[in-house]
Description:
Oligomer: single chain
Low-confidence stretches: none
Number of strands: 0
Radius of gyration: 16 Å
Order of helices and strands: HHHHHHHH
Structural class: mainly alpha
Largest sheet: none
Amino acid sequence: MVILLVALSLSMDAFSLALIYGINDIEKKYEILLSIIVGLFHLCMPLLGYTIGEVILNIFPIELHILVSIIFAFIGIEMIVESFKEKKYGIVTNITGIFLFGLAVSIDSFGVGITFNILTNHIFLSSIIFMIISGFMTYIGLIFGKIVGKKIGNVANLLGGLILIILGILYLFK
């Protein structure tokens, strides 16, 4: 259940950006490609974070529940701050733009990957869940972006940030 909440929270930035891009009514092939790229980044980044995190935790031992709290709170606060900023985005219609979009919205998953040891024993399965949910949320954001206004993107980021902060607080007292 926690992995699903984390996956949904981490996919909120992809969803909110996709809403904004969806307003520009990008071509169907770019909607699909963007969703796949975002999903793949959300598969790779937590695995990379987990691998690097293992090395770091061996060098600098720290209580994992404290590390989870710090990382979740940091990511959550960053998402909330971003939800209040004026956003100006270009249209993603080339592979470089799609790649950068996918990288930008999946960086948070790297930090969560560092904490996988405390979250789950199923690291690869969790990354697959991150991939599926983030790809799906990106696609849904692009579709809804064609329908709704720009304001909801900020609300989605705000909600995702709050969920991560709450999870961070809960892990602090675990």
